[in-house]
Amino acid sequence: MKITVITPSYNQGHFIEETILSVINQSYKNIEYIVCDGGSTDNTLEILKKYEDKLHWISEKDSGQSDAINKGIRMSTGDIICYINSDDYFLEGAFEAVIEAFNNYRKCNWVTGDCIIVNEKSIIIQQLVSTYKRILRLFPSKRMLSLANFIIQPSTFLKRSVIEEFGLIDQSLHLTMDYDYWMKIIQKYQPCIIKKPLSAFRIHGNSKGGAQYKKQFDEELMVMKRYDKSQVRYFFHYLHNMMIVLIYKIIK
Fold first, then answer.
1. Can you give the pTM of this predicted structure?
2. Is residue 229 classed exposed, middle or buried when 0-12, 13-18 and 19+ CB atoms within 10 A define those classes?
């Protein structure tokens, strides 16, 4: 099976090389790597040219991250599709674990695994948050996803058939387009859980998780209401988000 990896990119030249190397240095080599850059003005293009024999890339203005991901999906030819942002990176052996999961569970349509959380220097942080999300993934139901987003975006891989069935990412969303897609899929297919870290999710000053987490949680609640009309679960999701915001403020 071929894995297509898509990286949406914009002015992340200080991180994107680590992202690229984490893809092309995987032990599993049947991959297609696509970088959709939004017209970066830093050194991103220099780095992409450095590795252009290992990946396909375009650089042009777009309407945001969701647009870039959709461009990559349209270009993709893989049997399995994932995307990873240009400030995150995969861990060693991630693709091998994903292929093993799909081979072991033939009826599985998407898989998701653990992650580590790192700072701008790739130092592990917020281990308590990682552990908490890992506990939530012990109960991977649509009701649980309505209460809290336990899916780790860069550790999630979809069969092409899922993309063909559910379509492209909602480009009107700029902070929680991944959560919207997970909510859409889980109405029909439960994810298979890989109980090991597959990726490193980076928190830094300019990242969504670092600078816009309050706006992200507000949009997340709006998305939740698209798929679950329960006022009780909405209330508990709201409380959950407020608790996380409080924890972030304490951590910071």
1. 0.93
2. exposed
Task: Give pLDDT tens digits for 22-68.
Answer: 999 999 999 999 999 999 999 999 999 999 999 999 999 999 999 99
- The tokens describing 223, both together, are 């998305």
Q: Which CATH number fits domain 3-251: 3.90.950.20, 3.30.930.10, 3.90.550.10, 3.20.20.70?
A: 3.90.550.10
Do 36 and 9 meet the contact criterion of CB atoms below 8 Å apart? yes
Rg from Cα positions in the chain = 17
Alpha-carbon span 122 to 125, nearest angstrom: 9
User: Measuring CA to CA, which residue among 219, 139, 123 is closest to residue 180?
Assistant: 219
In angstroms, what CA-CA distances link 191 with 78, 182, 239?
Answer: 19, 9, 25
